[in-house]
Design goal:
Layout (H helix, E strand, L loop, with lengths): L1 E3 L2 E3 L11 E3 L2 E3 L6 H10 L41 H10 L7 H8 L12 H11 L27 E2 L38 H11 L10 E2 L3 E3 L3
Parallel strand pairs: 5-6
Antiparallel strand pairs: 1-4, 2-3, 4-7
Amino acid sequence: MRTIQSGTFVPLYGSTEEGYVKVEAFEIDQYPVTNQQFVAFLKENPDYQRSKIKPLFANKSYLSHWKSELDFGDLPINAPVTNISWFAAKKYCECQGKRLPTMDEWEYVAMADAKDMDARTKEEYNKYILAWYETPKTFNNPVGSTFKNYWGVYDMHGLVWEWVYDFNSVFLSGESRKDKGNDTDLFCGSASVNASDLMDYAAFMRYGFRGSLKASLTTKNLGFRCAKNLKN
C-alpha cells in the first residue's frame, strides 16, 4: 500500500459550502486487486463464489467470464479482477482489514500524473485518460502496466474503472434516466449541473458512470482496489 498525505482539492462536484473537500491521510493499494488474489478470497469465502452468492449481492454476470468457480481460465493471473459487484469488492477489502476508498479519496489520488499531485489542468493528461476510455479490453492487461503516479500508485487510469465506497453519493436527477422503466445503463445528462469545472470531460464520464451503477452490478471493465485509515 502507499501512504497518501492529507490535503484539499476542488472536486468536479462541490459538496461543501467551502467549495473544496479535505482528504485525511490514508493508505491505498498500489495496484488493483488481481484475479489470483480474488481466487484466494473465494476459497476462504465460498459464499461469494458465483454459484453461491445471493442475487441481492451480485447480478447474473458476476464472474461470468471465468471458466469455473475458482478458475479464471486463460485470463492473466495478474490482470485486475472484474465483473465484481460492489458488495463483493467491499467484502474482499474487509477480509483484508481494509475498506473501499471513498470517492473523494479516489479522485484525490487519481488527479496526479507521474510528476504532479494535481495534473488536471494538463491537456496531455486529460487526453491520455480520454484515449484510454476509447481503448478496448484494457482490463486484460496486467496490473502495473500503466504509469506510476506522484504517490507511487499505478493504474488509476488506463486499466479498469474502479468501485468506490460511496459511488452513488452524488445526487443525479432521474429525468434523463427515466424514473420509470429499466434504462438503468444510461448516463445522466443532468450530471453537469453542479460541476466545478465544465471542461473536465474525463471526470464527467467517471461521475456519469458511477451515477448509472447499482451495488449488485458487474461489468467486464469494472474492478477495485482497497484502502485503509492510517494508524494513530
